[in-house]
Write a structure and sequence with these properties.
By secondary structure, the protein is of the alpha/beta class. Helices cover 39% and strands 16% of the residues. Strands 3, 4, 5, 6, 7, 8, 9 and 10 form an 8-stranded mixed sheet that branches.
């Protein structure tokens, strides 16, 4: 009896799991390999994009199919490659070589080395600087297109960007073709100081080369276009278009309110606000831009042909 009692009162231990027991739960039992297929590690981190206006999570392929325009109508910022693809006929174009300029001519330091910041921006964007140029056709009209990349040091205007603008204008004159620019910038690049400000004048002179040849110069203002870029070649076009909701202005809203000590109206410095006041000719959606640009360029070139005939 004592022995029986000892066996009865002895705690029962769970048997060890078999050596070949499958782990991973019911999903792994149903379809071996499915767990790996749907693991978080294999899911792209940028598969979903958050709308800045509504906070809605948008499936990236759907956003790409919509030309990076959200269901709420926000025109997301895009780089030169996508802009060229969306603008030129059938996405066919030739990228113009970027003029080489010295990096960090002033040896500028602002908590970090400016040369290192340039290297980081080039690695992140794959571009040499903020301004890229290409040649192709828009609605059958041969033209030169410039695109500012806000992702590259806020699209700021420096020596390299200014040199690219001048080279594109000269290429347009050589080809007897219009020049179109998509602006997106925070202004002149502070790290290049007066050298950056000089590019405003150089770009203005380059536009005069187009004027002398009666070649169209069309500006498409995208979000955001501010500072010295707006104060120079951003407002010197024959026609000024803008994408919906684009921020367009020289100084920020808060700076202006503190200066004039007044509250600015709602929608101040948006593309729609500026159309009402005559600073922008028309607000055009990204999908409509190639067709509208083609129509404008054809019309302006008709005028050039009449001037040449006269």
């Amino acid at each position: 009896m004592a022995l029986a009692d000892d066996k009865r009162n002895k705690p029962v231990r769970n048997p060890p799991p078999p050596a070949n027991r499958e782990r991973g739960g019911w999903l792994a039992k149903i379809a071996p390999g499915v767990r790996k297929l749907v693991s978080r590690r294999d899911t792209p981190e940028n598969l979903w994009v958050k709308c800045p206006d509504t906070g809605e999570m948008i499936y990236r392929p759907d956003l790409e199919a919509a030309l990076w325009v959200t269901p709420a109508g926000r025109h997301m910022r895009i780089g030169p490659a996508l802009r060229f693809d969306y603008t030129f006929d059938d996405g066919r174009y030739k990228v113009l070589p970027q003029p080489k300029t010295p990096d960090d001519p002033l040896h500028f330091t602002y908590g970090k080395n400016y040369r290192d910041a340039l290297a980081a921006a080039r690695k992140a964007t794959g571009e040499y600087d903020a301004m890229s140029a290409a040649v192709g056709e828009i609605s059958g009209v041969p033209c030169v297109v410039l695109v500012e990349n806000f992702a590259f040091v806020a699209g700021s205007l420096g020596v390299a960007a200014g040199e690219a603008f001048v080279a594109a204008a000269e290429e347009a004159v050589r080809r007897k073709a219009p020049l179109v620019i998509f602006t997106a910038a925070g202004g002149a690049r502070m790290q290049e100081s007066a050298l950056a400000l000089m590019q405003m004048a150089r770009a203005t002179l380059a536009i005069q080369l187009l004027r002398a040849e009666h070649l169209p110069y069309v500006v498409v203002l995208t979000d955001p276009t501010t500072g010295g870029v707006l104060a120079s070649y951003g407002m010197l076009g024959d026609v000024h278009l803008a994408e919906p909701g684009a921020l367009i202005g020289f100084s920020g809203r808060r700076v202006i309110e503190q200066t004039i000590r007044e509250t600015l109206p709602a929608g101040f410095q948006t593309a729609e606000f500026l159309v009402e006041r005559g600073m922008v000719d028309r607000v055009v959606t990204r999908k409509e831009l190639p067709k509208v640009l083609g129509s404008i360029l054809q019309t302006l070139l008709m005028g050039r042909s009449r001037l040449s005939a006269a």
